[in-house]
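Lecture 7, part B: from sequences to assemblies.

Below are the input chains for today's worked example.
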Amino acid sequence: MLKAGIVGLPNVGKSTLFNAITKAEALAANYPFATIEPNVGIVFVQDKRLDVLAQKYKPKKVVPTAYEFIDIAGLVRGASKGEGLGNQFLSHIREVDAICQVVRCFDDENVTHVDGKVDPIRDIETIKIELNLADIESIEKRIQRLEKKVKTKSKEAIQEQELLKHIKDTLDKNESPRLLDFTEEELKIIKNFNLLTMKPMIYIANVAEEGLHEPEKNPHYQNVLSYAKQEKTEVVLISAQVEMEIASLQPEEQLTFLEAYGLEKSGLNEVIEKSYDLLGLKTYFTAGEPEVRAWTFKNGMKAPQCAGIIHSDFERGFIKAETLAYDDLIKYGTPQVAKENGRVRLEGKDYVVKDGDIMLFRFNV
Ligand SMILES: Nc1ncnc2c1ncn2[C@@H]1O[C@H](COP(=O)(O)OP(=O)(O)OP(=O)(O)O)[C@@H](O)[C@H]1O
Ligand SMILES: [Mg+2]
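Predicted structure of the full complex, as structure tokens:
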């Protein structure tokens, strides 16, 4: 399962957000380093298309797709040199596929800030520097390890080393290698480096309850917005505190609550949707009477691989996939009519599955 990690300074609201997202009961507390071991939770992806499919197929069961969220310990200045929870923290970030960075944008004298004062840009830079330093260290080691092979004029080693040096130069200037242009081939090589600074990332601006109504009046949030714009990074506005309250309510009560707050929907869905995108995740469906179900796959996966997500036998014995695009189903109203109009395609093993495909795999083992 793919993983999104919640990262940030201590006491900025990571566990509160995590709890709201996963409705898990992780310890959220008003003191720095409340979290030590990472909390892991499963997030179900709300998808309106699933409800529409349920109306059409009238299944016994509807199953949404899911991915993993991990609530990581707070990071402090010097983490790359072992401060705070140091390397332990960094190794947990290495394991995630995408980073949701929680940035404190709420003023509250009762909630300690490890640096004494709320300043989201300083916080963002603190984290950036630590991640950069950690990567510089691992890149230097890698460059050194390649030295021998480079001397023997190994083409791969030379290419790899040049890439590493290029990334290191960028990090030395305190810039983000994430923003550089790489070819597909280079990206494949870079993937093996497992760099923290190459992981896709979004900022989550955690504001106070009042900040939700008039974000334009929250200078912290505005600062994050303009900083993120320069970095071409997305920002989600949220109040982890409010989300926590919403998440603890019954569904009917949730609506009343949202209305009372003048909110259209919970900000959590946006966090979930954006991180789903960030992870390069797409959804295909299986639909029948017993069950309508959403499945997550990675952009670019072919039909047999997608079948393998359900069961390895489906991949091993893959023959064909009966495929109907969700939009075609909507256009023609029922699977039957879509079929009569030639919209149910028989796709083979080279078919690149698209978001919204409704698939029926034929296999033989
Ligand atoms: N939007 C908000 N407005 C006001 N208070 C908040 C908000 N979000 C979180 N808090 C409060 O901030 C405190 C710290 O929250 P939390 O434990 O979630 O932080 P954390 O980032 O997980 O910290 P740690 O790194 O120590 O694990 C809690 O008292 C929580 O209620
Ligand atoms: Mg925590």
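Note for the exam: The pocket of adenosine-5'-triphosphate (ligand 1) is lined by residues 8, 10-16, 28-30, 32-35, 73-74, 106, 108, 111, 206-208, 239-241 (CB under 6 Å). Keep this in mind when comparing with the next example.
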